[in-house]
Amino acid sequence: MDSKLAAYITLVCTSAVLNLSILVFTYWRRHYYTNIANLFMWNTLTSMIYCFGYAFSLTSTSLEQLRFWNIVQYAGMPFFPPLGLMFVMQYLGYKITRKRIIALLTMPCITFLINVTNESHHFYYRIYDIHSVLGAPYSEIEYGAWFAVHNIYIFCCMLAALLLLLSRWKETVSVYRSQLFALICGQLLPIMTAFLLFIGVTPDGIDPVPMVIWFSSVLYLWSITSSRMLSIMPIAKETIFNSMNDGVIVLNDTYQLIEYNQACKSMFSELDRSTLGQPFDQVWYMLTDQSFPVQLDTISDKLNVTIHQGNYIYQLRISMLQQSNNNSGLLIIFTDITELHTLQQKLEHQAYYDDLTQIYNRRAFFQKSEQSLMKAKGELSSFVIILFDIDFFKKVNDTYGHQTGDQMLVHVAQICKAEMGEHILFARYGGEEFVLALPGYTLAEGENFANYLRFCIEQKPLVENEKLVTITSSFGVSVTTGAVEETIHQLLHKADEALYAAKRAGRNQVRVFNEKYEYVE
């Protein structure tokens, strides 16, 4: 055996032994690893079979031995590239389904069967013989059609795995890049060597790929032991990161977008990988046509803000990312609170609005009118309360029914709302009674406005079963000038007394309560 052949055998055996060591080590510690270790072990096993088969073939002295060890090689060699691709896919977070396994391993199975039965059809090798010049164990081969198909397939598998790894480099955080680097180099070297073999620049009669697999094995072993490749991987991060319901955006220390999760992609459909590395202000403007509502360089601690974006409402939680006591970026978490906000609005509406007329209820009136009265007192301005009800409302219910009575209440509320500005507080006080608060109005202005509403109500009868039901109403008006300390309850009491004065005077009229607490007839 010449020294060159001995060197070849040594390199191949090194690859085989390293693969065996990794396989034993991984199986021994399999309980400490995630499920991805299973694919890794299958990939290592087929690679080891390939290397051992080729190492023994280099010791062959006859064509029969060469052919036997060649078949042994093909029990591993066609399988380890697609298994490597599946390992990389699972490592990067792609789901490995049964259909994908079958699809990727069908070709290797066909290749193995065609190789084993080659003597009957010569689809794989047209000629397989001992090298006419170099002799055993060097082989002289003329390849068949299926060999080209097989080589294209395994080259595509290795290239696809490499490209997938390279595509994730930019978005992979630094803690995982050592793992990614080991996998990239582990894929790149066999591809380059296989390419050199395909173009015919490697030593004649020699397959150099098993001789370089040892380098990939060393990288994998280093990554398993030093960076815990099989126990802590980017996929672990991505599984958690992308399963979150909240949208997450990660910015670096120069406020460039470096990562986002699937929930964020769902919130902002135009967000894609092309935006990675771009200034976040530009990305946000591209997504929303608006400037980001927070000045990022002013954030020194956690910040909570609420933003409205289209039909959605988000709560933003922004916090600094710390690394070695230095600011290393920002974490922005988007929580969709649209449904919660809608529910809060609904509950607030139910708490402060009358179900029938959809105007403020008694509770809302007291809360808002007291605030308005305090403001009027502070400004020393007048404040008017108007209390009115529908005349003979009980008779309407008795004559036409409660449904018509409800329609009349809604009708009156709509008439009044149409005549009011936003500065007037209008509410259903109870039953057929309504109340208004008019900040800044004088007593005369309040009386005039009450008369105007009374006139509007009278001029717009309710249509019931093609009949017109005339509506009249009685009003009581009270006022405070701001110089006297009076409460809403006191003003309502005065307006109520004025209202009853209007009723006693014959209804369908307005009465005011003067400063001497006497009725003005």
From TrEMBL:
Gene3D superfamilies: 3.30.70.270, PAS domain. Keywords: Membrane, Transmembrane, Transmembrane helix. Coiled coil: none annotated. The keyword Signal does not apply. It comes from the Bacteria. The chain crosses the membrane at residues 6-28, 40-59, 71-89, 101-118, 143-166, 178-199. InterPro entries: Diguanylate_Cyclase, GGDEF_dom, HisKA_7TM, Nucleotide_cyclase, PAS, PAS-like_dom_sf, Rev_trsase/Diguanyl_cyclase. Residues 381-515 form the GGDEF domain. NCBIfam families: GGDEF. PANTHER family: DIGUANYLATE CYCLASE DGCM-RELATED (PTHR45138:SF9), REGULATORY COMPONENTS OF SENSORY TRANSDUCTION SYSTEM (PTHR45138). This is Diguanylate cyclase. It comes from Paenibacillus odorifer.
